[in-house]
Amino acid sequence: LDRNKSGVYHMASQDAASFFEVAKACVELLELQSFLKVLEAPSDLINKRDKAERPRCAILSTAKLENEQLYAQRSWRDSLAEYLAEPYFSGLFAKACKINAKSLTMP
Question: Does the reported pTM lie above 0.90?
């Protein structure tokens, strides 16, 4: 706004990830591998079950921000690790999985 710019700007973390990769990273970062296993499902199977039509690719382009040197995001995995390290998540799974809050540290 300070630069008198207008239009649609997409902001997203660096790097791309599928829903499978994000789910797998959540299980790993929360150290739930012995309790949960993430399986990759074919998109046609999911599309048959969902009422809403899903886009083939949901990756946002940050090119406009990058071109104007306004892009300063970090990796999605780093952001996810910080988010899942919040006390809420250790408390959420502590009783069910006996996870110690100290085990939820960033890699």
Answer: no
